Predict the structure.
Amino acid sequence: MKRTLKYALLSILLLLVFVPADARRNRKKAAEPQVKYVFYMIGDGMGINQVIGAEQYNAGTGYGPEEINFAHFPVRNFITTVSATSLVTDSAAGGTALATGVKTYNNAVGVDADGNSVSNLVEWAKDAGYGTGVATNVGVNHATPACFIAHTAQRGSYEEIAFQYLHAPVDFAAGAGFITERNTGHDAAFFETEARGAGIRILRGPGQFEGIENIPGRVLCLSGKAQTELPYAIDRKEDDTKLSDFVEAGIRYLDAKYGEKGFFFMIEGGRIDNGGHADDGAACFQEVNDFAEAIDVVLAFKDLHPDETLIVVTADHETGGLELGSGQYEMHPDRMATQTMSMDAVNTRFREAFYPPRQQGGQGQGRGQRPQGQGSRPQGQGGPQPQQEYTPPTWDQVKDFFSDNLGLWTTVTVDRRAEASLKAIYDSTFGAGGNRENNVENLYSINTTLVSDAIGYLNRTAGYQWSHGAHTGSPVGLYVTGSGAEAFIPVTDNTQIAPIIANLAGYNK
Ligand SMILES: [Zn+2]
């Protein structure tokens, strides 16, 4: 009897040794997915240089951690971002590739190159019974989140995307607010009413996020203020909502309802891209920090569930053509410390100081007001009213402004060439026959050329050189940690990520 038992044990042992390890793993995987909680974090416009640049900036200025959490995840890779129609993608085609694994044309949301709907990770996860969440610090219906909740031929169809969100299989959604289109008669409140009508509970601002875990149905978290994007981190005030508020609320909600089964949560750092479009290094780097702060919240959840959590961080494309180094074999990131607000905010102050009251429009308009880049123009371009007294600023006044607001000529040396260049812009803006509306326009904001170039100089003297205000075809980083992270080592393109997540988490793709 004893002998039989011994032989039986021996044969089990032999079986374990001789059944290949892969086969054993596969059997286990078929029974139970390897990953229960998936966090898919997308930094919009966050190229590799935006991440490394932010670490340099933080080390030089002390405005953030010298090591950005995700930049040191155990699996680090880079991916190509080309769309079906261009070597340079936009956020819609990039987001569709990340959400569905399918290449499409620029501007397409959740449809393939022929315009057919393609299913996405949120739909696959919900179909398999998992909880689903989508959060962003820009509009709920802006391109990147749209790729996880809608299918439209054009990203500019904001209202169609908002209507589709009402019936999308997403339990938790968060964003600054709804972006509306012109001349439809709809405002953000209209879509909030529609959402309530669809049974979605709306919570405004972190104060209302308390107790979110007890809400039975779908939830939409919005900014505490009427906004289509949360303020830049560099401009944030005490009572502003921030991305990590959304992430904390989303995790509490999803864990309470789907902690047993598991959940999928996409989180976008949407304003990194805005800083890149404006060539505003300080705003951009502090957005990378803000995104990393949201990832800290996710990492704290992973600490509680180390064997069941997967965190994938990547980007849809690079924005601005950011170079590290501007001609000299040295960089001085510490020189950026004197910029304490975004270019948009400096521009607002500049116009308040030096333009007639009626002409103070034209500073960074919310991206919601500027669908498809057809921006609102500064108002009152016809010049001051005849009866108004207006005296243009002197060059010394303008220099004083840049000293007070950016530290130029005081903390940061301005070389003769740069000063001559700024003075020439001053002359063509405020001099005799000059054009006061001498502006630099990008997809999301319009700034006076003087402010744009003053900050451009500050960036260059620190060693950060921007190539332009649009996207590039540069590869972006892929940073993965947690259960199943090694599966991303072979990845080379943005379409390969979604199927791997689906496979690891047991979604019905
Ligand atoms: Zn962009």
About this structure: The longest strand covers residues 37-43. The two ends are 51 Å apart (CA to CA). Confidence is low (pLDDT under 50) at residues 13-20, 22-29, 362-382.
